[in-house]
Amino acid sequence: MEDIKQYKKKGYLNTNFQFFHIKDETEQTFDYHFHEFDKIVFFYSGNVTYLIEGKSYRLEPGDILLVHHHDIHKPVITKGSIYERVVFYIRPEFIKMYHDEKQDLSRCFQITKKKKHHLIRLEKQARERMSGIVKELEEAVAGDEFAKDLYSNTLFTQFMIHLNRLVINDQVEDSNTSVIYDKKMEELLSYINENLKSELSVEHLANLSFYSKYYLMHKFKDVTGYTLYNYIQKKRLLLASELIRQGMPVTKAAYECGFQDYSTFLRAFKKMFHMSPSDIH
Prior knowledge:
The chain is of the alpha+beta class and 281 residues long. It has helices at residues 4-10, 92-96, 107-115, 124-142, 148-168, 183-194, 202-209, 213-224, 228-245, 250-256, 262-273, and strands at 17-24, 38-45, 48-52, 55-58, 64-67, 73-77, 83-90, 119-120, 179-181. The longest helix is centred in the middle third of the chain and has 21 residues, at 148-168.
């Protein structure tokens, strides 16, 4: 498997999916970060709280986290226990290959995003079944049998189908007691992400939230790990990069994401992605 530290430096996934079975026995500190691909965490053990878009999820063995592309997130690990998990990185184009009226492998991400709840807690039978598929997939990837890549893709697709069925049919346990969040900040984050093209000044957002400007800026940094300005700019740039990949002209994508000045957009884009928007393909 590809080394995870090197892989994360690339910023964009060029294969259908990658996964890593990781076991950390030493304390680690992670920063808040984004991905341009979807991510699934299958949690095995550890004393871990996962922070995603302003919500804190206290994990239990067998939990599955769905992190939609562009969600800000990080794990907080308490030392004294082994943090073991399988992490999937999924290329958006791979998901789109299975997208029509009768099948859509992105439904699980859509549903959890709409519910603003990223944690899937499975019942014992479903947990064992999903764990078995993951184990078989890991063995297939590590082996050298005939049609290894095809079989690995088949197993991963099977995993995604079962996960979607569980989420769509709501065959999951109640995990609300494992979630902590500020309702007002959740509403504010949703407003920002739904209105990236619009006016998002501190004054405007403070009026919406009924906070003072200074309290809002302090509270926002505490909840998300980003300043309000940096969060909005990163979200706008990530959305712009996605629109450009989908074929939208660069200048239109900049405007659609709230940038009124193209030179400002261009400088910010190059600084974040280390490439020009025209280099995206």
